[in-house]
Amino acid sequence: MKLGGGQALSSDVVAEVQGAGVIAAPRCSEPWAAHPSRRVLVVAPQPFYEDRGTPIAVRHVLEGLSQLGYSVDLLTYPVGTDLEVPGLRLIRTANPFRFKNVPVGLSLKKILLDAPLTVELVSRLRSGAYSCVHAVEEAAFPAVLLGRLYRLPVIYDMQSSLPEQLVTGVGFPTTPIRHLLNRMEAWLLTRADFVVSSAGLAARVRRIAPSARVREWHYPSAMVPAGEADADRLRQRLGIPPGVPVVLYGGTFESYQGLPELIAAIPAVRARVPDATFVLVGADRANGLVSHAAAESLIECGALRMVDRQPRAEMAAYLALADVLVSPRAYGGNLPLKIFDYLAAGRPIVATDIPTHRTVLAEDRAVLVPPRTDALARGILAVLGDPVLGRRLAAAARRYAETHFGWSRFVDSVEALYGEVERHANVAGC
Q1: How far is CA 377 from the centre of its chain?
Q2: Among residues 270, 257, 263, which one has the least CA distance to residue 335?
């Protein structure tokens, strides 16, 4: 099925995702457009689909709803690649400015695209017989207001804390602005019918809005595992000799990810392991690049590889290449999606010891260190210098992922959420 204005995924990619168990037969026997009670409007103010955090999370939800037999209208930006998912209708807003991309975080492009998205949301609710609205990030503000008008339950999909994102990412300097942002978040959390947050944010929700109905997403790793031959080919392509230990980071290059501290740790690691090579995957001029005085010299001497953002299907080979997977994140309440993939990859993990990482990581399946350059270096050296430790951590991480973050378990969580929404709607008479 090809819907919307972008290009459909190739049949090879669709087959690969199906082979990973992401798209499966629906659990119910109803036809896709069978009943209004199984028709959902998802509003995602992101470029969809792109291989990056929130769009990946939204894709998981859409495929979970599809497997459960829901019919879904996805209202989203006019930027991205179309997906073929049973029961999904893609509705893109107008693109009067002819934008080709939208960066991560707040931007003028995002503000300009949110306006027609809100207008289309009103139109959809006027004409559509939806059972509920599933609104992602800032789309929840108009959705909550309109939900009350049209007597529809609203799920606020809280991928990040908007005040935290704006204060730390954009750098709003004044206390009054920060106070206003916190008040706006509190208003939203107390008025949404349901809140489902990224792992690590539920505690914040309960602190701000104790009466909120809140759940946390624990996303699956849906990548097709890479074989040893794939990792060897990638090693050759990157010019990394056989046997050279690889320390790998995969994700955005935004400031909160802690990459300057990781880069600063490279000389200390190389002093003990001279051939250790660091590979940072995710460089994107539209979404942030690392600025570090030593990076250029480290690249020139072969200690560091900066790799552009890769399609999600390619990341399995990068993870398989690694001797150590690292997440130097400095701050942020929402758990980065890469941690779920790290765990499933079966490679030893070194991560900063912050509450966000602690939601799924512990000492038995990762080396947790303070968010400082010297601590990151010590953590990486601990794994590189002790192969037995590395194998133990890697095996424990994979077991934990298999037990807690499988696709079936994620679909069960979607089913539980929507079952609660349906019961609430029946009681409330929505």
Answers
A1: 26
A2: 257
Mean pLDDT by 10 residues, the chain (430 residues): 37 37 40 58 96 93 97 97 95 92 85 95 91 96 95 95 70 72 95 96 95 95 78 95 97 88 97 98 70 81 93 92 96 89 95 95 97 97 98 96 93 96 75
C-alpha to C-alpha distance for 70 and 68, rounded to whole angstroms? 6
Region of 405 (left: φ > 0; alpha: ψ -120 to 50; beta: rest) is alpha
Cα separation, 296 vs 376, whole angstroms: 20
| Token pair 């038995």 in the structure block, residue | 364
Q: Tokens 């036809």 label which residue?
A: 31
pTM confidence score: 0.83
Judge if the upstream peptide bond of residue 49 is cis by omega within 30 degrees of 0. yes
d(CA 32, CA 51): 27
Burial group, residue 354, by CB count within 10 angstroms (0-12, 13-18, 19+) = buried
Complete DSSP assignment for 125-161: HHH---SEEEEEGGGHHHHHHHHHHTT--EEEEESS-
Q: Which string of DSSP letters, residue by residue, matches 354-419?
A: -HHHHTT--TTTSEEE-SSHHHHHHHHHHHHT-HHHHHHHHHHHHHHHHHHS-HHHHHHHHHHHHH
Burial class (CB in 10 A: 0-12, 13-18, 19+), 406: middle
Would strands 246-250 and 277-283 be described as parallel, antiparallel, or unpaired?
Answer: parallel
| CB 256 within 8 Å of CB 222 | no
* N-term to C-term CA, the chain: 32
